[in-house]
Amino acid sequence: MQHVLVYADSLSWGIVPGTRQRLPFGQRWPGAMELALLEQGREVRVIEDCLNGRRTVWDDPFKPGRNGLQGLAQRIEIHSPLALVVLMLGTNDFQSSHQNSAWHSSQGLAAIVAAIRQAPIEPGMPVPPILVVAPPPITVAHGPVTPKFEGGDLRCVGTAAALEQVARTMDCHFLDAGQVVTASPVDGVHLDADQHARLAQALTPVVARLL
User: Fold this and answer.
1) Mean pLDDT, range 173-181, rounded to an integer
2) DSSP secondary structure string, the chain?
């Protein structure tokens, strides 16, 4: 049994845009990807570690525990041995409580990669390969998330290219989700169910090759 850790935020947790509800396991992309891999005959378990509001390296001034570096090394230790870590972070780096650019977010992601590789795993266990997934760009926010993501559509410009550069420099695999899916028109941030399905379909063969 190969274990794949998805370390991500609400886009992967499966929040239903415009609500506080969650898509069922088989409809959110990590679950749909696991089911697709199992159908291929692969013995794989996808571990979802997806926290709403998680940043790369910044604290949420209103909610504790949203800094992606906090406890990350221990999570790697807990779930090892891991065959792969999939990182899809960055969207919350552009909340209005921060004034980050794409470069800032990419450097936060680089710190996440470094922490994974420095985690105190047991002797003889593998340091897992890492797949960096650039989240789709934020569009103009709508609904309850509007003040939270005000201006995020402008600050996030160039994120995919910046993350791809980090992935290349740090010898990670890379996929730009923005080439596959788009943010929901309901809130301009999260993914609708059909977009989860599309992302799972795009990621399944990539992950299969890396296992």
Assistant:
1) 98
2) -EEEEEEE-HHHHTBPTTSS-B--TTTSHHHHHHHHHHHTT--EEEEEEE-TT-BSSPPPSSSTT-BTTTTHHHHHHHH-S-SEEEEE--GGGGSTT----HHHHHHHHHHHHHHHHT--PPTTPPPPPEEEEEPPPP-S--GGGTTTTTTHHHHTTTHHHHHHHHHHHTT-EEEEGGGT----TTTSSS--HHHHHHHHHHHHHHHHHH-
Confidence band (pLDDT; 50, 70, 90) for 21?
A: very high
Candidates 117, 94, 118; CA nearest to 172 is 117
Instruction: Report the chain's C-alpha Rg in angstroms.
Output: 16
pLDDT of residue 19: 95
What digits encode the pLDDT tens for the residues 76-105?
A: 999 999 999 999 999 999 999 999 999 999
Please give the structure tokens belonging to residue 79.
């779930």
pLDDT at 41: 97
- For residue 144, CA distances in Å to 35, 149, 165, 182, 186 come to 32, 10, 33, 19, 10
